[in-house]
Every structure is written in structure tokens, then in C-alpha cells.
Amino acid sequence: MTMETIRDFIRREPFEPFVIRLSNGEVHEVLHPECVALTKSKVVVTYPDADRVVHCSLIHVNSVEALQRA
After folding, report:
1. CB 58 within 8 A of CB 42
2. Do 9 and 37 form a contact (C-beta atoms < 8 A)?
3. C-alpha–C-alpha distance, residues 64 and 7, integer Å
């Protein structure tokens, strides 16, 4: 997965929440564009309400897709 794919999701207008799926089965929801950051090799997802930060290597990102709410 390239950082450009994730960057495209972050920059959508209007912003649409999305999920990042990792090779180990973890799924991380990005609910606001300020809750995610990109570097050359990582994506960092923050969960402000839980005071949690997750660092994910881009090589382990399997997919990025719009968040489907029920």
C-alpha cells in the first residue's frame, strides 16, 4: 500500500471516515483527518478519547476503505 492512497483518503472533501486494515488482522478507524499522520514508512493513527497512538508500518497495510456505518 502506498502512502499516496492513504493521503488521498485524508484529503477527501468532505472528509469521509475510513479504515486501515493490516496484515495481522488489526483494523484501525480514522474518524477525523487530524487523527492520522504519514511518514515515508509509517502511518500513525491516534485515538484521542482513549489516549492511544498506533504506529503501523506501511508495508503491513493491506487495504484502506471507506468506513461503513450501520
Report:
1. yes
2. no
3. 11
pLDDT at 70 over 90: no
Give the Cα separation of 21 and 14 in Å (integer).
22
Tens of pLDDT, residue by residue over 25-54, are 999 999 999 999 999 999 999 999 999 999
What pTM value is reported for the model? 0.90
> What is the distance between the alpha carbons of residues 52 and 65, in angstroms, rounded to a whole number?
22
Query: What single string gives the DSSP state of each residue in 20-53?
Result: EEETTS-EEEE-SGGGEEE-SSEEEEEEGGGTEE
CA angle, corner 56, sides to 39 and 21, nearest 5? 120
| Domains of the chain, earliest start first | 3-66 (2.30.30.100)
